[in-house]
Design brief:
The complex is a heterodimer of chains A (about 475) and B (about 475). Chain A is α+β, with helices and mostly antiparallel strands and about 475 residues long. Chain A is about 40% helix and about 20% strand. Chain B has a single domain (about 5-260, about 265-295, about 380-480), classed as Amidase signature (AS) enzymes. The chains are: A alpha+beta (about 475), B alpha/beta (about 475).
């Protein structure tokens, strides 16, 4: 198999459940995790005589998303009926936007292997979710709690050429939705779902070959594995027979076998008999409405990434780490309000504290450590109140006694009190010099390593409490 | 029986109690509806309960509603919470409405007394009430004839003077045609003027709820109660309604009435004679008759049967036997639940229309049928707008024939022709009324249809009222029910 001669072409359809109080076309609550058929009304069970009324909050979130990806927000869009029979579909038609969606175009940027790539969005539209079929022994039931939950379906251009591209794109869409507070994007709960369309072709070919669709992957990792497996499968078919045609179909990913499995053939396009939803007038938005939303967008992930790297001078790695974890990033922002050294703060949060809590399966947020306390710890180091070494001990104590501020910990523990008294430090220096005559000789003959060794010995003797600046000053004086 | 206005006055003035009104009304229905078959079910308990409350309200001197004490019948495709809504379909034999339609809420808020549900063509699909799965309704003027349809039960209930007001729904003429055939007033308001919330949908973009009454005045009184914006119906108009009752009080000084002769070239015989006579009456009311071009309406039946069935095929898709309604007992698999429940639950006309609607929406046929019909619909709307530049209202017959014998029309296409003059108002969303305009030699009623521009419901009622004042055809009772 020669990977370099083959080019995968991937397009994604991402379904995002919007976080709204009520459902897309009714006043029933939009809430996950309740007992079956609690959050339902006459609209979401398709009772005759009921009528849909569009949820304005869902429209606003869709417009925010459109603005966030630089798309064209259509002033005129409409809803259509998409007919298909299935028990989870209460009217046996879905209300969606077929040929005049609310969002057209737009793009997202994402880092792939250290390189910023641009991915194009084809369109995005609003539609309602279906209920869920639950299978039991001998019968099945339908839970309509999910029926009518607002969805935005984001359809990409076939612009991705590797599983990593696809993951980076999907991750970027997810973090934009999270930053807009438009969705929980919880893959386990199904509030973020993706379908991949994939084909491969010879590099340099301009036409697309037959594609297949992989449905229902519930993590980025699974999506990446599924795509890798599918790319390998298609390439193998073409390499065995250059004239082979990939059979169009819908696949799922078998996690155990690590391979894609066909669920059904796509012999011809399904006939959904789309036509305009007569119960809903077209959705007409004013320029003022769209501009007001555009002008009040929160800081978006990419903007924040630039700020972290350019203004705060965080490393590429650290900045991305924060951006992709909305909660941690928010925590960092909280600490930042109380701290002047962003790089150190980032390190203390993402390495020291995250590391200390990992074993317990907690995060600084879930453990209840206040971000401003970590900021305070960084400030104590900055001001020279404690050394970095002491700070690590203070951090241990902060994890052990949740809620105590680092200043309080330092004040209560004499071992953490810094030693900056001239006389005490001088005595320490003298003691070290006395027992290390060889190092003094080495230093005088130009071996700078000897100096560092002496500092180390002094700090060891004082258990890291001496103010390094004072130690430096006295040692230099003594050696001259 | 008294008119709605008179009933309200008598109750308010203490001449009769609400309980007596209900008693008399229900007794009359129970004694005489066996002959007519207007009602599918009676809401006795609800009516008496509300009558008791209403009598108490009056006794306590509290203000009484605009329809206080007025008995009203509701077509059985409009929800009354807790009562059956069968749509005259086997499929919904036992379906109890989970909520009340906005019209029902509005009527009860104004102290009307709802007495029962009336027969209709199954899911309002038909023009004779013969496709009802439950019973035939007969025309009170001639029990061998149909009352028209699909709101035949409501029309017959008013014609037989069981109730002064009944509600129907009109998708292609289903209020006006039975009103005409039974000699009562039937009004289809502008699309969006009366909330559709709680009406079981047939063709959502065409459906409109409206009243039957024995007098235009009662229609206006009723419209004052049910015409308002409804936030549960996204197609409801936000514009404030007119005061229809007050409008009728102002003198009518004549206006320009358009007649689309090029569309009605086939009109002949008695129907034509009655229509010409009606025009003469309008002239006497200082109306100027002008010729308007609406030749495009020749396409309206074709356009209608594409659009209405397309919408119906999806509106009725929910009747699948999964959540409510009749699930076939023979079904063993999911596909059988779908197939057999529909096969057993729906009658032939409903099946016809679902198949037709599914066909015209199918890929490969949608351009030729559905999209094409939508374009023609737009042209019809435009042509009406042109016509209304020349006139205040348009006059047409309601139906090319008077009431026809039960069972006499077997060919669905012949039945569809019943709606030739009424469909256009639905396609263009216009207010249109059928007002009694005389009788043929056999004593069967004729109706005159008047149409106005969208949301000019008041003008239509005003002209019809003037016409009624000078003709008084609506004062005549079917001989069988004259007592």
């Amino acid at each position: 198999m020669n990977n370099s001669t083959w080019e995968p072409v991937i397009g994604l359809e991402i379904h995002v459940q919007l976080k709204t109080r009520s459902k897309l076309f009714s006043t029933a609550p939009n809430r996950f995790g309740d007992e079956p058929n609690i959050n339902i009304g006459v609209v979401c069970t398709g009772q005759p005589g009921s009528l849909p009324v569009l949820n304005k909050e869902a429209v606003k979130k869709a417009v925010q998303f459109g603005c966030a990806i630089g798309a064209k927000v259509e002033k005129f869009s409409k809803f259509d009926r998409k007919s298909y029979f299935y028990p989870d579909s209460p009217r046996n038609f879905q209300i969606t936007q077929y040929d005049q969606p609310i969002i057209i175009g737009g793009s997202v940027q994402a880092v792939v292997n250290g390189e910023i790539k641009n991915f194009s969005v084809h369109r995005a539209h609003i539609e309602d979710d279906s209920g869920m079929l639950k299978h039991f022994t001998g019968f099945a039931g339908v839970d309509y709690n999910r029926a009518g939950v607002p969805l935005i379906e984001v359809v990409s251009e076939p612009c991705m050429h590797s599983p990593k591209d696809a993951v980076a794109y999907a991750t970027a869409i997810k973090s934009i939705m999270e930053y807009l507070d438009a969705s929980d994007c919880n893959m386990d709960e199904g509030s973020l779902r993706f379908d991949c369309n994939i084909s491969v072709r010879k590099r340099g070919e301009t036409k697309l070959r037959n594609k297949i669709e992989i449905k229902n992957m519930n993590s980025f990792h699974n999506m990446e594995m599924a795509l890798e497996a599918e790319i390998a499968r298609q390439i193998a078919i073409y390499e065995k027979d250059p004239h082979a045609e990939i059979i169009k179909g819908t696949f799922r990913f078998d996690l155990e076998k690590k391979e894609t499995v066909m669920m059904r053939l796509k012999e011809e396009a399904d006939d959904y008999r789309y036509f305009p939803e007569p119960d809903l007038p077209p959705l007409v938005l004013s320029d003022e409405y769209i501009e007001a939303i555009r002008n009040s967008l929160p800081e978006l992930p990419l903007q924040r990434l630039h700020r972290y790297m350019e203004t705060l001078h965080l490393s590429d790695y650290a900045a991305n780490l924060l951006i992709l974890d909305k909660e941690l990033c928010h925590y960092f922002e909280e600490g930042l309000a109380h701290c002047s050294n962003a790089r150190n703060l980032c390190n203390w949060i993402t390495v020291e504290f995250v590391g200390r809590l990992k074993e317990q399966g907690k995060t600084p947020m879930s453990a209840g450590i206040a971000a401003r306390h970590i900021a305070e710890l960084v400030e104590l180091i900055e001001k020279g109140t404690i050394t970095g070494k002491i700070a690590k001990l203070v951090a241990d104590d902060m994890v052990a006694t949740i809620g105590t501020s680092p200043t309080e910990i330092v004040q209560k523990n004499p071992d953490y009190q810094p030693v900056s008294d001239q006389g005490t430090i001088e005595a320490l220096v003298d003691a070290v010099l006395e027992s290390n005559p060889q190092s003094i000789a080495d230093f005088k003959s130009g071996k700078t390593k000897a100096y560092a060794f002496l500092i180390g010995q002094i700090m060891k003797l004082c258990k890291g409490k001496a103010d390094p600046a004072v130690v430096n000053k006295i040692l230099t004086q003594k050696l001259q | 029986m008294h008119t709605a206005k008179e009933t309200q006055r008598r109750f308010q003035d203490g001449e009769i109690s609400a309980q007596d009104i209900i008693k008399v009304c229900l007794e009359r229905i129970e004694q005489q509806d066996g002959k007519v078959g207007a009602f599918l079910s009676l809401a006795k308990e609800r009516a008496y309960k509300r009558a008791v409350e209403l009598d108490k309200k009056r006794k306590e001197g509290k203000p009484l509603g605009k329809l206080a004490g007025v008995p009203i019948a509701i077509k059985d495709n409009i929800h009354i919470e807790g009562e059956l809504t069968t749509c005259a379909s086997k499929f919904l034999t036992n379906y109890r409405a989970p909520f009340s339609a906005t019209v029902v809420e509005s009527l009860e808020k104004e102290d009307a007394l709802i007495v029962g549900k009336t027969n209709l063509d199954e899911f309002a699909m038909g023009s004779s009430t013969e496709t009802s799965a439950f019973k035939l309704t007969k025309n009170p003027w001639d029990l061998a004839c149909t009352p028209g349809g699909s709101s035949g039960g409501s029309a017959a209930a008013v014609a037989a003077r069981f109730v002064p007001i009944a509600f129907g729904s009109d998708t292609g003429g289903s209020i006006r045609q039975p009103a005409s055939l039974t000699g009562v007033v039937g009004f289809k308001p502008s699309y969006g003027r009366v909330s559709r919330y709680g009406l079981v949908a047939f063709g959502s973009s065409l459906d409109q709820i409206g009243p039957f009454a024995t007098r235009v005045e009662d229609v206006a009184l009723t419209m004052n109660v049910v015409a308002h914006h409804c936030h549960k119906d996204s197609t409801s108009v936000t514009k404030a309604p007119e005061d229809y009752a007050a409008l009728l009080g102002s003198p009518f000084r004549g206006c320009k009435i358009g007649v689309p002769w090029n569309f009605m070239a086939d009109l002949a015989g008695d129907a034509k004679d009655n229509f010409l006579a009606s025009l003469e009456i309008l002239k006497k009311l200082h109306c100027e008759i002008v010729d308007v071009d609406l030749e495009i309406l020749k396409t309206s039946i074709a356009v209608y049967y594409i659009l209405a069935t397309a919408e119906a095929s999806t509106n009725l898709a929910r009747f699948d036997g999964i959540r409510y309604g009749a699930r076939s007992l023979k079904a063993k698999t999911l596909d059988e639940v779908y197939d057999l429940s529909k096969q057993e639950g729906f009658g032939p006309e409903v099946k016809n229309r679902i198949l037709l609607g599914t066909y015209v929406l199918s890929s490969g046929y949608q351009d030729a049928y559905y999209r094409h019909a939508q374009k023609v619909r737009t042209l019809i709307i435009r042509q009406f707008a042109e016509a209304f530049k020349q006139c205040t209202a348009i006059a047409m017959p309601v139906s090319p024939f008077p009431a026809f014998p039960l069972g006499s029309i077997q060919d669905p296409l012949q039945m569809y022709l019943q709606d030739i003059y009424t469909i256009a108002a639905n396609l263009a969303g216009l207010p249109a009324i059928s007002v009694p305009s005389g009788f043929n030699q056999e004593g069967k009623p004729w109706g005159l249809q008047l149409l106005g521009p969208q949301l000019q419901d008041g003008n239509v009622l005003h002209i019809a009222h003037a016409f009624e004042q000078v003709t008084q055809y609506s004062h005549q009772l079917p001989p069988l029910f004259a007592s």
